[in-house]
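Consider the following assembly input.
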Amino acid sequence: MEDKRKFYIETYGCQMNVSDSELVVSILTSAGFQHTPDYNLADIIFINTCSVRETAETRVRGRLTVFKTMKKVKKGIIVAVLGCMAERLKDKLLEEEQVVDMVVGPDAYRQLPQLLAVAENGQKAINVLLSKEETYADISPVKLDENGISSFVSIMRGCDNMCAFCIVPFTRGRERSRAPQTIINEITELSKTGYKEVTLIGQNVDKYNWNDGELNFAQLLEKAALIDSSMRIRFATSYPQDMTDELIYTMAKYPNICKYIHLPIQSGSNAILEKMKRGYSRQWYIDRINAIRKVIPDCAISTDIVAGFCSETDQDHEDTLSLMEEVKFDFAYMFKYSVRPNTYAARNYVDDVSEATKTKRLEEIIKLQNKISLEANRKDLGKTFQILIEGYSKRSTDKLFGRTSQNKVVVFPAEKNKIGAYVDVIITSCTQATLNGYSVIKTLKQT
Ligand code: 5AD
Ligand code: SF4
């Protein structure tokens, strides 16, 4: 019997890509290929790429040189680029990177077996067609995560927001929602196989809309929460303009919906928000935060911030810092602006903030956020949280780590606790990034 051809897949970028890689594994195993986690054993190497910032693309280019060296020794291997970079660069990628045999965009993964047949024939293969309908709804992803506890479930694809700086609408195409029953089935299966947490993912989950209003995101979230009350439900990413009160009330209603919202602000300056075409003002954003905190006082909130967008002045930057002080995010992802080709900003604005200024502003933003995260964590000292145990601490096998509902990482002595279990942990110390504590053994009080 002929050995199955083995493929390896490496994933960059966001959770959507993680989930897409799982689809790719599913499609290829059904077509008779075999997945290997070791690229030295692979006949085919896939790189699932991200284009959101220039640095993401630079990293992928670096990886390609590694595979180029490998290909010199192992002549027959196929190197395939998937995802956003494939979609953005199309056949240019084949021209620029000799090592690449295949270029496949995010909506063309069903074609992978056919495209591989072309590449195995010695020809270059490409499919970068975007679709208005493809959601891979019927495909059960093959889970690649290591712990078997926590998983992503894709609920929609694409993005219609067209923020001026963002490449995503160009690489992932139009917004489309996945059929609710297939989402529910996938979560039910995960629950049956022992998973304890799912994160519903999409570029902008608040725009989930099945059949023209038949089911919105809050209603989908409720359905998800009702599947298994011992399963935690998370979601990402929300969009300030689209996040409804109904969603907030649904979160409050179900204890297994985690009290954590990732709500990107991008900038604290109204002028910059307008230039970014975000569609909301600073005050609108603050009002959304107040609405969340009124209904869910213990809700953690994280954000994305971009430093040095086109025409950003010192005052605009100060506005971002003051917004951070006002909102007090528990956590933030912080970036320097980088021009993405063909976006509205690339076509219409000048990237006029110097690299040095971008760096300086980003450093100030990070420094402030570190201080705020530490203050937020200090408020948790002495409190007890229910933790879902995800694994052993990287630093010591005597310790386990897990997360609170608020998505904060907690490290504590392992004792008799097991991965996948819930445990109550009292917080005794913290850094800006982690909470430390010990598990509280509940004893029955004698009366
Ligand atoms: N430059 C820097 N950061 C960007 N992001 C998106 N596009 C860019 C860009 N051109 C950031 C935004 C977004 C996150 C996913 O990446 O903050 O929310
Ligand atoms: Fe980009 Fe805006 Fe869509 Fe987020 S919502 S992916 S920032 S276009």
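Residues 52-53, 165-166, 264, 266, 304, 306, 335, 337-338, 340 surround 5'-deoxyadenosine (ligand 1) (CB under 6 Å). Ask yourself how this observation constrains the way the partners meet.
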